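2024-03-11 09:14:02 DEBUG pipeline.ingest accepted 1 chain
2024-03-11 09:14:02 DEBUG pipeline.ingest length=102
2024-03-11 09:14:03 DEBUG pipeline.predict start
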Amino acid sequence: AITQAVWAPDGTTIVTGGADGTVRLWDADTGDVQLVLTGHQGPVLGLSVNPDGTRLASSGADGVVRVWAIALDDLIEIAESRLTRAPTEAECETYRFGACSE
């Protein structure tokens, strides 16, 4: 069940919070799920997207507020900074890691 819903500032994305603790980003035109964020240990109670649409805050019944990077470039940068091995060819094709261009 959806517990919260907000529009992203650009009007192309809808963000929902669920009773299952997930936050989902949806394409407003197609209804396709773009991204599923997990981490809350209970229903999502609140959502807010910053004005430039690069960050999302969610609060849950677990008493935790999470701030998520939702811009693709930011997500790739975070992933690259935490990757402890060379990316696979499939990861390079999917995520366009900078380490792949060498």
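2024-03-11 09:14:41 DEBUG pipeline.report The longest strand covers residues 2-7.
2024-03-11 09:14:41 DEBUG pipeline.predict end
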